[in-house]
Amino acid sequence: MKVDNFRLxxxxxxxxxxxxxxxxVNISTSELALExxxxxxxxxISDAEVCYVCDQLFSTAYTTRKRKKYSYNAGNxxxxxVYFDLGDLAEAQKMYIEHTISRKSGNGxxxxxxxxxxxxxxxGETLRTRLSAAMDGGIDGLTLAAGLxxxxxxxxxxxxxxxxxxxxxxxxxxxxLQIFLKRAxxxxxxxxxxxxxxxxxxxxxxFGPEDWQTYDLFTIxxxxxxxxxxxxxxxxxxxxxxxxxxxDAVRYLESGASAVQVATRFTITKESGLPSNVKQNYLNTExxxxxxxxxSPTGYPMRMLKSSPVLNYxxxxxxxxxxxxxxxxxxxxxxxxxxxxxxxxxxGEHHLKVSDQTCLCTGMAKYDCWTCGDTTWRLKxxxxxxxxxxxxxxxxxxxxxxxQFSENHRIEKPPIDRE
Length: 419
What we know:
The protein is of the alpha/beta class. The protein is 32% helix and 13% strand.
C-alpha cells in the first residue's frame, strides 16, 4: 500500500493525505506551503513573529517602529509598558496571508499554524487579531496550536468566516481533546480536523520533560479514534511526529487516520526558510546530538540540537522590538534569568551566560534555535553527499512525492545530476 491509495476528506474537498507542518519562524515558508498545495496536499505557514517576518519579506518596519516607540524602556526589567500595535499586527498578518494565498496554483490548501502560547503581552486581543486577520486574508484553515485553546473559538465566533474556514486543533492526549471538545460542542463548532502530535515531534512538546519517552504516538492516535467513534463524531485525525517514511504514514492511514502531518524531512528542502549552513548542520546530526530541554520561556519542553547557538545566549532581552512571549503582566522567564545572571556576574567576566532559560524571540528570528524532530539524525538517509563534502538539498516535491508513492520504507533520494 501507498499513501496515494488514500485521500483526506475535509468538507466537500478531497486532498492527498499529506500535511506539511507549520514550522516557525518562517521555516515553513510560503514557498514550501505552496508546493504542498500545488501537489494536492495541505501546506502550513506559521504566524510566529509575523511582524518580523513581514519586515524581512516586504521591507516593512513593524519591528523597528515598535522598538523605537518603547526605546525608553529597553534597560528596564519591567516590561509592563510594552504592547503590540493591534493595527500593525492585523496589517502584517493579512499581508502575509494574502501574499501566500494569492499564489495558489493547485487543488490543495494553505493552513495557518497559530500558537496560543505567543501571548504577546495581551494574549486575548493579539490572538483574536491574528486569527481574524488571517481569515480576512483568505486563509483556508486555522490550526490551533501550543495550548488547550479553551477560549480561542470565543474570540472569533462573530467573524463572518467562523463556520466557513476550516478549524483544527493540535493535541497530544485524549484528555486535552476532551477538554477542548466540551467548549466546541457547546458553541456548535466542532473542529474540522484533529492533529495528534506525539512525543517525537520537533520544537515544543505537549508532554512532561521527564516522561515524554513513556508516550507513543500510535497509542494516542488509537485512543483518539476510538473515543471519536464512541461519541459518533466524524472528525479526521491526523497523526504527527516521527513519521519518516511513506510506509510509516500508511500504518496510520490503515489504522483509521485520515492523513499524516510531516515536517522534519522538509527542513532541508530548498524551499525551507532555514539558512543553508543550518540545513547542513541538520544533515550532519547524529542521534546523540539531539536533546529535549526546558530552556523555553513558554514552560514547554523543547527538542533541539545541542549545538544550537541559542543555548549559549547571554543577550539583552529585546522585548521592545519583539516581546512575543511576554505574558499579560509583561513578564517572561528569560528576562528574570538574564537580570539575575547580570547581577551575579563577577567583576572582569565579559561573557554573560544565562542558564536554564533562553531568549526564544531573538533566537528564532536569527535561526539560532535549531529545533528539530527526533528523526533529524536520519535526514542523511534522504539525500546525497556531494563531492565537496556538503549535502544536496532536495526540492519539496522530491520529499512530498516520496511520502506519497514509496513502499516498504524505501526512501527515494533526489537525482544528483540535477545539481
